[in-house]
Amino acid sequence: MDEESLFRDIHSHLMLQAREGQKMDTEMKLAERFNVSRYRVRRVLDILSRMGVVHRVQKRGLTLVSPEPEDLSKSIGSQIQSVGFNAMEFSEARDLIESAVLSLTVKRMTPMQLGRLSETFDQLERVNLAPLAALSIHQTFHSLFLEGCGNRVLQVFAAALLSECAQKLAEAGDNLPGSFVSEIISLDRDLLAALRAGDDEASRAALVELIDAEVAAAAAHGIKAD
Q1: Which of 26, 27, 44, 88 has CA atoms 20 to 30 A from the CA of 164?
Q2: Choice between 68 and 181, residue whose per-residue pLDDT is larger
Q3: In a domain, 226, yes or no
């Protein structure tokens, strides 16, 4: 049995055991079941552990990991980072995914969520254009906007892309021009006003400008431009 087939079979077997509420097989049992060495099984389990699928505890065996949406976003983000997509791909992906999020957010955002968004924006306006502080609050603002869609699948993928851009911008730190921070604050203001009004078209226009500004700045500090 080749490595890919072994990985697929062990993964499927463990997921079936988890769904049926069974205790997951040990490394030794898996080796016996698939008639391979424990070394080969251990390599598969190491990969599954690094992927965040299972958790290995000495003398206690395997347990299935049930990650929170934030953990999934981080996992996806780390894989995106390792591939190194270019700025155009980031911009297109964010436009498509966050536009879908936006349509739901306009319909579903609760008054309480909108209140939290407003409070966060008030903090953003008080940071006096200090780049790192502004970026941190801006990311919180954007994360709250994503939560408003009520769809955790979309939220996970959108947050992964947002986090990658935010990391590149944070690395730039004080090298970011004040004009960029001013633009981000202005666009956040436009987005908030449109969400308050339930205006899907105005929200979308502000969001597209915001994404383009972020990706362009991130491209100058780490994301490939072509």
Answers
A1: 44
A2: 181
A3: no
